[in-house]
Write a structure and sequence with these properties.
Layout lengths: L11 H14 L1 H6 L3 E6 L2 E8 L2 H11 L7 E9 H8 L7 E6 L2 E6 L5 H9 L6 E4 L4
Parallel strand pairs: 2-3, 5-6
Antiparallel strand pairs: 1-2, 4-5
Length: 137
């Protein structure tokens, strides 16, 4: 007669503590941690917010799956500024500069003909939270 297999589930609080430890100890994530939201429900991790680079996003997601007790990771709403910059680049007219930090796009330089139309196009991009006009005047 074989002994029954006992499956224990790791507590969500312990999983969350490991994720917060990762955010606090990996230097690129320490700069981004205030822009990341995390929740855990029965081992299912949901991550949203912004990180600065694609490499940081990849590293973070690869580490999450190795945390004991994590059953799945939903990172559909975790964005990186590098990917936003790539999407944004074709929209920016000559003379306009765009800086991005945690999903906020700041436009500066020479104002385009229709600032509002440009801002609306930018707001349609995945991960963009806000557009700020830094044009002098």
């Amino acid at each position: 007669m074989s002994e029954p297999t006992v499956i224990t589930q790791r507590d969500d609080t312990a999983i969350l503590e490991d994720i917060y430890h990762l955010l606090a100890t990996y230097p690129p994530l320490t700069n981004d941690r205030h822009a990341i939201q995390v929740s855990v429900d029965n081992g299912a991790v949901t991550i949203s917010g912004h990180v600065m680079t694609t490499n940081t996003r990849r590293f973070f997601l690869s580490r999450l799956t190795s945390i004991e007790g994590v059953k799945s990771v939903d990172a559909e709403n975790l964005h990186d500024d590098t990917a936003i910059r790539i999407q944004l680049s074709p929209l920016i007219p000559a003379g306009v500069q765009a800086n991005i930090r945690h999903g906020v796009v700041v436009l500066s330089g020479t104002p385009p003909q229709d600032i509002e139309a440009l801002a609306n196009k930018i707001l349609e991009l995945r991960g963009v939270e806000k557009v700020v006009s830094g044009f002098g005047g």
